[in-house]
Fold:
Amino acid sequence: MNASIAIVSGKLSRRAKARRMGLKVFQYTWLVLTCLVVLVPILWMIGASFTKGKLLSGVPLLPNFKNFSLEHYKYLFTYSSQSGARFSDFVASFLRSLSIAVVNTAAVVLLSSMTGFVFARFRFRGKKSLLVSFLLLQMFPSFMGMIAIFMIFRTFGWLNKPLNLVFIYAAGAIPYNTYLIRGYMRSISLSIDEAAMIDGASKTQVFFKIILPLSGSIIGFVAVNAFMAPWMDYMLPNQLLDMQNQTVAIFLYRLTDPFITMYYNPLNFMAGALLLATPITLVQFYMQRFIVYGMTAGAEKG
Amino acid sequence: MANAPIVTNKLKSWKGRPLAVGIASLLVPGLGQWLNRQRLKALIWFLIPLFILAIELGSSQWGRYLELKQGKVPPEAMATAAYQNTSATQEEISSQSDYMSALFGDSGQGGQTAGSGDPFADSTNAQENNTPASSGDPFAQAAASEENNKPGSTSEAKGTNTEQGNYFNATYVYPNYRPGEPHYPIRDFGGFFTRGIWGLVTLGRLVIDQPYAGGYIELYNKISPWLTADNSIVLLGNALICLAVLLILGLLWVLGAIDAYSTRKRILSSGQVERFGAFWKRTWDSLYVYIVSAPAFVLIIMFTVIPIFFTFLLAFTNYTYKIKLGAKLIEWVGFGTFSYLAVDPGWLSIFGQIFLWTVFWAFMSSFTVYALGFVNAMIVESPLVRYKKFWRTIMILPWAIPSLVSLMMFRNAFDKDGLVNQFLFATGLMEPVSKFLFNIGLAGQADQPIFWFQPIYNGKLARFIVILVNLWLGAPYHMMMIIGVLSTIPKELYEAAAIDGASGSQRFRYITLPMVLSATVPALIMTFSFNFNNFGAVYFLTGGGPVWDPAKVPDSMRIVGSAMPGQTDILISWIYKLSFTKGFEQYNVAAVYSIIIFMIVGGFSVFNLLRSKSFREEAGE
Structure:
């Protein structure tokens, strides 16, 4: 933007140059400060995870190798509350969360793209009111239905089975994702479907062979979100799973809750949080393209 | 249709009128189709009432009721307890209440820890250290229910039942209705639908150890189900499932009537009866939509809609921690909870304060996050800045880290020994900062170190920190979004403005700001409603603390005990406390407040949707 002034006015006056310099200094100061605010807590967390003991006060502000220790990582990879378990508690809960996330991704992508397709391509009775009620459903505090969900799970004998949580996650995620995917699919030209239909493709074939491959970027966004959501859910696993079947979020929470003295150790938590956050952060960065796309799509299409 | 159909002589009788056919189909599904000479179709619709009847009869014991009515039941098969002289006292009932919760935890595999306010933990534990009365074979009690009829104290009877119980020679015991005593044939014999409706209306009538129709109500009796205690929550859940099934079948029923009506109209105008094949093809085409989206709809109905209705109904009951299921019944209180909460000054003032803070929080958190995101985006995208990608990567880091992790990290960072206090001590800033916070009124005392989240007098400080931490977490998202929007603003606009002599600030004010704002208003509204319900930002950071000043807790609120909100609690996290603080659950109050939140946030989002472009384009569909 400012470069365009230079183009237009040709030569900059001295005053303008000074102002530009001032702006530049201000901008860089801002950037450096912001980055410090972002990085310092993260660096502190890394430092804490390598500090001996279980006290936050022992964490040095500046790198100090006197207290260096790998005990927290060792704890995470070796401690198991059950004897003879194949994995340590942390690894087991991590794998549980991973399996939930993978299944959830598959379920959400398949179901919401199918419904999105239907909403984008067909006219039918009650479409508009369904869309509105979809959106309304999202707004109810989800854990308020917990008693009912607990009852349903109990009736089906689903308690303490981590993968069954996917039913709830998917049910919660479908409405908004349907809405997003519908918005995207509406922008795909109808003539493509028509051409395929003339060639004898059924509606289902049109969906799987034409519309779905063309919706890659929005599907990517939905998939990343569906993959991320279960990792950090605290309430559902806390109510529906027992200790032997916990997810990694609950495991970490236990480490920071001072009331659970058996597990409380903020430094163990720091190590576990880093181990959990690193892969997730990498996935987020790797999928950034989709996410930025989906965010702007969500912003524009509301 | 404006034009009157051509009515042939043959069809001129009343039977020929579309309305008459429609009403016929409403009375008996399929009858209208039959009158339209569409036999196969008639058969399909006639299956609906048959289906309802089959479910009802299959799940009921109405046959036994008939036997009982006709006097065919031999007297030895009737329950004959002489309970008149041994009515169970209230104490006895409440002493049983511990294992009654086993009703609710029968599938727990034990081993749940008590921490973190698990509402159902208590039930699973109860099952483990159960008294013989309900441990082991649940049929044991049923088997010996005849023994149960002997006079004597109820607990003795139970003890003997368990020992003599034998599943294999268990027989059904008929309720022995005696004139003048209450009896509930629908409860005792009803099927899926009748019992469902009965449960919805009454929420149960009989609790454990209560004498009824010649027997004593038990925790669970598989062989003679009528001896099982009523569990209001189970009844309510079944009633909702029953209503959902009825609703779907009823919808088909009505569709049948509409179909009969419109088919007759078409017959009158064209004089031809549609063949079934044509009808099927037409239906399949129009049903494609519903079949494809059926799995999603089933999931949503099961795990979103039914729970929502369930909660909605709880708001009209008196269900709190005082009710132990099976030992005490939940009752409908209509708008009682609503009006109590609206009238009682104590509840009203606390709710008002929490509500105001929630609105303030939602507004401030959305606004600060958006503003900082905007500034960051402008600076990163400024032409004067080099290595944009480097800066951007660092700045979006907080967004990429899972929020639960960062929130709990900050909870530790603001600990007494955490990063912030250490940093302040190390740099010698502790004293001035502490004094400053005290002077501007955020902190109640100039402590060193600063207790960020704990003492009662630091409520304002904790609120401030919650907003600050949310800024750290949320700004990157908005920065990314605004960078995305900035890239869509055409460069020519700026060049044209520069040629017209607009200064940098003018271009920002008249081009950048309006363009970005108009593109992100929906996202801003969504951020607002998200933050309104941002449970994690409060719960994982402060846990709601500092606690409410005990001196300021109104007397009428003392019963909520540790479910009292903390000073940083927003509505949603208070609702969580109200429904899951062990020993202090206030399900009905929590449900009322959820409905209020639902109306506010739901209204917001519907408004947002209705004004969105893509939705308006669909008008008329």
Q: What stands out?
A: Chain A has a mean pLDDT of 85.
